[in-house]
Amino acid sequence: MALRSTVVEAPDIAGRLSWFTQVREFCQQRPLGAIGAVVVIVNILVGIGANIIAPYDPLATDYGAMLAPPSAAHWLGTDAFGRDVLSRIIYGSWTAMLVGFACAFFGATIGAVIGVTSAYFAGRVDLLIQRIMDIFLAFPLIILALAVVSILGTGVSNVIMAITIPMIPRAALVARSSALAIREMPYVDAARAAGFRHRRIILRHMLPNVMAPYLIMLTAYLGQAILAEASLTFLGLGVSEPTPAWGLMLRGAAVQFAEAAPWMAIFPGLAISLAVFAFNLFGDSLRDALDPRLRAQ
Amino acid sequence: MAKYIVKRLLLMIPTLLGVAVLIFFLMRVVPGDIVELRFAGESAFAQKENLDKERARLGLDRPLWEQFVTWMLGILRLDFGTSMWTGAPIIEEIKLRATLSFQLAVMATAIAVALAIPLGVVAALKQDTWVDYAVRIFSIAGLATPSFWLGIVFILGMLIIFKWLPPMVYTPFWVDPWQNMLQLVWPALAVGYRYSAVATRMTRSSMLEVLREDYIRTARAKGLWEKLILSRHALKNAMLPVLTVVALEFAFLMGGLVVTEQVFNLNGLGMLFVESVARRDYTLTQALVMLVAFVFIFVNFTVDLMYAWIDPRIRFR
Questions:
Q1: For the whole model, what pTM was predicted?
Q2: 3-class DSSP state of B46
Q3: Residue B253 CB: number of other CB atoms within 10 A?
Q4: CA gap A184, B111 in Å, rounded
Q5: Do B29 and A151 touch (CB under 8 A)?
Q6: Nearest alpha-carbon partner for B156 in A81, A255, A68
Q7: Is B148 at the interface with chain A, CB within 8 A?
Q8: Is B147 in contact with A271 (CB distance < 8 Å)?
Q9: Contact flag A139-B15 (C-beta cutoff 8 Å)
Q10: pLDDT tens track for B262-273
Q11: Pick from A177, B107, B220, B272: most CB atoms within 10 A?
């Protein structure tokens, strides 16, 4: 009995150890990636705990302190309505993370499913799906975003949709090219011989095996989505007041009063850059770790 | 090769047709039409009969399929019609804006390539040293910085430090090259930085892959100069994927610089996009979308042709 229980437990411990070792190895071998991951985690925590951390209400106006420069009371200064820039950046972190994760998740996942399906069926189905993807690839993103916003109005969920749609065909392309090789694997043949349904083979046998490119796309899209959200919002096509968002802080007054109050334009941009920078740093190291071709000799 | 080209050209048709269908119906789903918008400020004239008369004049009263077919037949004759808002021929509306966008795209590409190739090659040669790390941080930062914000910072920096602003009114290059450059070099730098980051990363990873190929080892084994190996054997082979990202990025710049154009007050294609959608100028928006889609598809086609030309394995597949 005793012997048997150790045999059962052994893989469990080994599994936990190897997970921990993997993380430690990643941090040791790719310090840049680890730094990126830490900044990402801090960013998420700041976004979640915004109402605890932020020194002021992001919407509270203080006409006594309009366009105040950075000081002990307002670390990053105030905007044209006397709102605290730091608090608005902290609250904006939530919007950015929400849009980033939602777009990257939906974009990469839907794209991967479409791409793998396309590769699995091959032939005419593949050709048809590829042509539809081509149409969306060639379609200018800004028009898609303009149309979504004109039809559905501005708002976080609509921005997520406007950014996700153009991501899908790009993700599908990547997933398809990896899945083409997987399709020829013996285990896919075996699954087919066992009489499994198409859906089961695609979702349970092929999709898990495009995990590496999927994770790479996911991390790359996180940063891109945050940038796209900031751009759309800056144009007035994204998130709208009073939702705190970094792109919104750069809009209007920030440019108008840029000379008198440069902090209004500089800090939100730095927040965007830092967040995207961290995501990219992490994603890059992850890609290097997952892609054996790029490892140093 | 001829068969390959014909096949690729034929594949362009369904894609362009799909784009046409998509934009045509998308524009009609967007609430409000040009007539309503135009009469919005003049309630006295905004009676139903006036609106209907105007719609009839623009052909908007006809069934959708008829409008679509008429439009498609026009495109086949390369006739894009007139702008519904201004009444001017669409070719004229687009021409001036496209010149500006094209010049900006060329300048940004030049900046990007000039930065990317040396940086990418050096990073690959010195993989995992501080040089590599510095180049990677520089390029990841380029990807992370919004171009439009970098533009704001440029303007702000010049305003605060030099008390000088770049000219805000567009001067065509052939009228006054100096004024033109003074204005366009800043947006080109702001956009070129991000663009160079994309290309640097591609150069680096592509070089890394090529440097591991057998023919590089062979070249080294037969005692060739390192410089010759790098320039003739490695760089040439590593350039193909770089060319792809540069070309695709160029296609994107032709219509995708909406925000940067806004910051620098440039009347390029991106601004025209926003204006035409805001006015529900169906004909102009449709023509612009077709133009941008065509540029994208054409650039893709050219890149693929170049691949096929350089790599015979693709040609004969």
A1: 0.85
A2: coil
A3: 27
A4: 43
A5: yes
A6: A255
A7: yes
A8: no
A9: no
A10: 888 888 888 888
A11: B272
